[in-house]
Amino acid sequence: PLDAIVVPGGWAPDKLRRDDGVTDLVREMDAQEKIVAQICHAGLVGVSAGIVDGRRATGSQGIKDDLVNAGAEWVDEAAFQDDHLVWGRVVKDIPAFCRTLVQALNDV
């Protein structure tokens, strides 16, 4: 069993969000309250998996509208944890994202 999943950023999420296996896994991890970490454009996978509604979220400015339209509250912070979801904004925020993710994993 998995304790966490890290969805990569960059352009990969545009393809990953169209893969039912990926969105099913993300949805299952969320339902089990396992860590789902997303950085940069990775929030697109969370949108397609239907796990961002009512949650705080961040990512690349280019996906802000997608997150908000899916019901997320946009937060312009480098990295943070909202329950079992770990968010990172952009590539320059990777150190903060990694620290937040490691802390979340330590709490498992």
Key terms for this structure?
Rossmann fold, alpha/beta, two-stranded parallel ribbon, 108 residues
Number of strands: 6
Kindly state the mean pLDDT as a whole number? 98
Q: State the CATH topology.
A: Rossmann fold
What's the tally of helices? 5
Binned, the helix content reads 25-40%
What secondary-structure arrangement, pairings included, does this model have?
Layout: E1 4-7, H1 12-16, H2 20-31, E2 35-39, H3 43-49, E3 56-57, H4 64-69, E4 73-74, E5 79-82, E6 85-88, H5 94-106
Parallel strand pairs: 1-2, 2-6, 3-4
Antiparallel strand pairs: 5-6
Helix pairs in contact: 2-3
Structural notes for this entry:
By secondary structure, the protein is of the alpha/beta class. It has one domain (4-106): Class I glutamine amidotransferase (GATase) domain (Rossmann fold). 40% of the residues lie in helices and 19% in strands. It has five helices and six strands. It has helices spanning 12-16, 20-31, 43-49, 64-69, 94-106; strands spanning 4-7, 35-39, 56-57, 73-74, 79-82, 85-88. Strands 1-2-6-5 form a four-stranded mixed β-sheet, sandwiched between helices. Helix 4 links the parallel strand 3 (56-57) and strand 4 (73-74). Helix 2 (20-31) crosses helix 3. The model has no long low-confidence stretch (mean pLDDT 98).
Gist?
This protein has 108 residues and is of the alpha/beta class.
